[in-house]
Design goal:
Shape: globular
Order of helices and strands: HHHHHH
Radius of gyration: 14 Å
């Protein structure tokens, strides 16, 4: 089941792609966009849709992000690419230095619901000012 607890995601409108300056993506915007996308992907996965790459791309298109506008179809990768592009500025790693999007416990491409819930947990810690 997808956890519906989404912190501070209501600040960005549904026309996200038109509202966001991708060249100056803030950390908070990055988290909001990431959580919105993964919530939808996880919900679609639970409905039986299994092509995660296409689901990610579909969400981006439906929300005004053109092809190749978001690095790896990932807002965390996009944010990182604007800073140092070696994962050191990945918003998730800023919360937990041991985070890896390919960790088999919650790997995004095979366990999108677990991945989304991991992101929610990390975002809660981020908002509380806690890091690991």
């Amino acid at each position: 089941m997808v956890n519906s607890l989404c912190y501070h995601t209501q600040r960005i409108s549904e026309n996200i792609g038109r509202d966001i300056n991708m060249k100056r993506l803030t950390l908070n915007e990055t988290w909001v966009l990431c959580l919105r996308k993964w919530k939808w992907v996880a919900e679609e996965w639970e409905k039986g849709r299994r092509d995660i790459e296409n689901l990610k791309a579909e969400w981006l298109r439906e929300h005004g992000f053109g092809d190749e506008l978001v690095d790896n179809d990932c807002f965390f990768c996009e944010y990182d690419s604007q800073h140092d592009d070696d994962c050191k500025s990945c918003p998730a790693i800023l919360v937990s230095r041991n985070f890896s999007c390919t960790n088999v416990t919650y790997i995004w491409c095979y366990k999108p619901t677990t991945f989304y819930n991991k992101l929610l947990s990390m975002n809660k810690k981020r908002l509380e000012g806690k890091t690991e």
